[in-house]
Amino acid sequence: MSAAARRSKLLLMGKSGSGKTSMRSVIFSNYSAKDTRRLGATIDVDQSTVRFLGSLVLNLWDCGGQNAFVDNYLTAQQSTIFANVAVLIYVFDITSTEWEADLKYFDEILTALRENSGDAGVWVLINKMDLADKEDPARKKYEERKADVIAVEERIRRERKEKAEKSGKKIPEGEEGGSIRCFATSIWDESLYKAWSSIVHTLIPNIGLITSHLTFLRDLCLAAEVVVFETETFLVIAKSGTPLDTDPSELDVAETESGIGKLDRQRFEKISEIVKGFRKTCQRTGEQWLGFESTFDQCSVIVEPMTRNSFVLVVSNDSRIETAMLQYNLNMARNHFSEFSQKPSLDRKCGLCRGSKELKYEAEGDDDPSVMAWDDCGRGLQLLG
């Protein structure tokens, strides 16, 4: 990112008692699920600013869900609430006995959003699944709720298109309304981290380039996987190889050979939950958590700071690779990642990228090979052996 922080407006909405403020407090304020019991209902709009990865600023609008507030959002405050929105996060309570009324409010809110911020992303979190799973372990109710939500989105998109065609207008490209992403969540397990990681992942500039660099680092270290987490929230940002939500059947060759497809698909979110819980324990005892390193029979694992605002996880299943070698490569790559993560676009490629045919991207002003790269880490990164 550049020196000027990039700001993204996030609307957090849903009926009163659905768990909006609780999940926000767990993710961004390091509350435990038990701590959220003392939180009260949100009055009108609670705006907060969260700095993510240093220079990405999330303007989070936690909107109260009482009927009077929602009615006001849709009328007097509509142009204020729904303008310039990057993401709408709408939370449903799976245990609600007023589903039709809940769905009606969602319909009205989504319509207002599309009229004011047509290109906004929409995430629907069907919350409190820990309560529903006791009676419905197959999650049939969740699938029914999800189908209802998607049907609302499809109808609104179709009606907007028909209205535009009748008036002879065309909906601007990118504002047609994309597919809604639905997640089953609970503040009591790792599902909450998976949903919020998916949300924040889409707001990070150069995410494709970050993934490419992690893949290069993975292969350089002969590792199975390299993953980056944000320091404060410990939400997963990116991983090496294929994207975070890739189906196991579409993993790249290196991941398949390393057995990544056989691992728990919730592994990153479980790591986030474990680390945040352990850090809270360290705070209570006056200790500072700096990282983790361990060697097992079949793999070695390292978790340590990568940049000022991120941690990196490296997993190696090659018994020949010492953890000191992995740490050396991480240390040599650290400055490069710090520079790279602060730039929304590059004037020229870095030394590492110039030396790799796998990292292909356009960089204005990089046509002249005599011009020095803006860093020299490409000379230092290497595998010791």
From TrEMBL:
Q: Which SUPFAM superfamilies does the record match to this protein?
A: P-loop containing nucleoside triphosphate hydrolases
Q: Which GO terms describe its cellular component?
A: fungal-type vacuole membrane; Gtr1-Gtr2 GTPase complex; nucleus
UniProt keyword annotation of Nucleotide-binding present: yes
Q: Name one GO molecular function term.
A: GTP binding
Q: Which UniProt keywords apply?
A: GTP-binding, Nucleotide-binding
Highest taxon of the source? Eukaryota
Which spans are transmembrane here?
none
Q: Which Pfam families did the record assign?
A: Gtr1_RagA
Q: List the InterPro entries.
A: Gtr1_RagA, P-loop_NTPase, RagA/B
Instruction: Share what the entry says about its subunit structure, partners included.
Output: Component of the GSE complex.
Q: What is this protein called?
A: GTP-binding protein
Organism of origin: Dioszegia hungarica
Q: Lineage in the entry?
A: Eukaryota, Fungi, Dikarya, Basidiomycota, Agaricomycotina
